Recover the amino acids of this structure.
């Protein structure tokens, strides 16, 4: 049974950036991109490094530790050293508040 | 990862404003392309010197100079592109990664995956797969390392093994299963290229010998003098990059050849920062870092002095370079780490 959980105010995330969001012992990454807001698991699938300090370039997030890259909307692993995709989550904007479906 | 915290800025207690870091780490193609052009022009100039010196005794110094410009940047560029930070455009990054790895003589995926491991476990015994020498280093270890013999032996052995589908424990521990077959394919391509070059030389086509093979061998020790001082005499098994890694001063030529990797502490703290952002990063976190050690030559002279004195059972206190406390003894030493590049 999924639920919509409030993350933050939309303006709390800078343009072309992300924030870390922790909920129920799990951690997520919520992105603001040129094509809207997205959410994925927070940890890189390569070595469990959190993506929160990663670099968002266009629609790609790059892990800060080893440079593994993921497509933000699909979570698809784009280049070594990452081979496994990130899980993605639906994001909804209600007024000026962001919600994530968990 | 089993709870291990990767060695980086967080594990070292170093902080920087995120917006400032993003600005410094922002990707661009321009600096990499400018570097590529400058490197190409440099190689053109040194290759011209080799050509002018053919059939004279000046050939050897000319090949040495050409070799320095061929070998050190091939290492530096291969390293930078292994991180994926040299260019914003990914395919450009990967093309240069392949070509420079071919010059450096290491299969690209092996280079990339062992290097990711080096950043996760920087200078950790039995974990870091890129510890290139035994620590503490003695004179014998220095000779083997700086001569390039150990690296040459590794280069000569790892490609046939990968080409035959034989993967060492180190390779298996750092590489996703799905990438192993690609390593084998790449190693076969590399061996075919090297075989073609050898075939040309055997067929009495000598230009690869004067412009490629001998310069690559002659430039090897200079490359080793740069890479040696990244971690030698520093602390093993520390979560702090400030203790395990050394930055050092160098001239504009040294920064060019080494693509600013003299800012090595900064690179390990924030590996997502491209080579052209390292000086700005260094300035931004300068108040949190130890001062860089003296220049490449001075630092290497001090290292050589220390390892000779260590082998002679004398005091190993260096005058100006940083050392981990256990590296400083009044005679005798216990081995801490063994070479993991194999």
């Amino acid at each position: 049974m999924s639920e919509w959980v409030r993350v933050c105010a939309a303006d709390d995330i800078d343009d072309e950036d992300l924030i870390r969001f922790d909920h129920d012992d799990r951690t997520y990454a919520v992105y603001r991109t040129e094509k809207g807001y997205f959410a994925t698991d927070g940890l890189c699938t390569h070595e469990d490094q959190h993506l929160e300090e990663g670099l968002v370039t266009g629609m790609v997030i790059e892990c800060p530790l080893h440079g593994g890259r993921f497509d933000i909307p699909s979570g698809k692993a784009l280049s070594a050293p990452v081979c496994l995709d990130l899980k993605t989550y639906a994001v909804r904007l209600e007024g000026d508040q962001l919600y994530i479906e968990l | 990862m089993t709870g291990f915290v990767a060695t980086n800025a967080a594990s070292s207690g170093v902080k920087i404003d995120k917006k400032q870091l993003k600005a410094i780490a922002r990707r661009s193609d321009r600096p990499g392309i400018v570097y590529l052009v400058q490197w190409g022009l440099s190689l053109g100039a040194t290759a011209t010197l080799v050509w002018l010196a053919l059939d004279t005794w000046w050939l050897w110094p000319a090949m040495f100079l050409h070799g320095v410009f061929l070998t050190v940047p091939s290492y530096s560029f291969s390293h930078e592109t292994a991180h994926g930070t040299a260019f914003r455009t990914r395919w450009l990054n990967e093309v240069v990664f392949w070509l420079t790895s071919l010059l450096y003589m290491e299969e690209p995926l092996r280079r990339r995956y062992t290097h990711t491991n080096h950043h996760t476990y920087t200078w950790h015994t039995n974990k870091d797969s890129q510890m290139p020498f035994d620590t503490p280093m003695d004179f014998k270890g220095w000779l083997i390392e700086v001569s390039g013999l150990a690296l040459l032996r590794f280069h000569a052995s790892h490609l046939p093994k990968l080409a035959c589908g034989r993967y060492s424990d180190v390779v298996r521990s750092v590489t996703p299963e799905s990438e192993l077959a690609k390593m084998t394919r790449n190693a076969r391509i590399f061996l075919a290229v090297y075989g073609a070059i050898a075939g040309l030389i055997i067929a009495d086509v000598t230009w690869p010998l004067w412009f490629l093979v001998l310069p690559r061998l002659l430039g090897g020790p200079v490359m080793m003098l740069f890479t040696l001082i990244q971690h030698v005499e520093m602390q093993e098994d520390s979560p702090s990059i400030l203790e395990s890694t050394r930055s050092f001063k160098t001239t504009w030529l040294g920064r060019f050849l080494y693509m600013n990797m003299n800012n090595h502490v900064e690179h390990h703290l924030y590996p997502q920062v491209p080579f052209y952002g390292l000086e700005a990063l260094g300035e931004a976190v300068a108040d949190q870092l130890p001062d860089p050690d003296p220049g490449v030559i001075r630092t290497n002279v001090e290292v050589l002095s220390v390892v000779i004195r260590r082998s002679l059972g004398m005091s190993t206190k260096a005058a100006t370079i940083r050392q981990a406390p256990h590296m400083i003894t009044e005679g005798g030493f216990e081995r801490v780490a063994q070479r993991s590049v194999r």
User: Anything to note?
Assistant: The two ends of chain A are 9 Å apart (CA to CA). Residues 20 and 29 of chain A are 5 Å apart (CA to CA). Chain A has no helices and eleven strands.
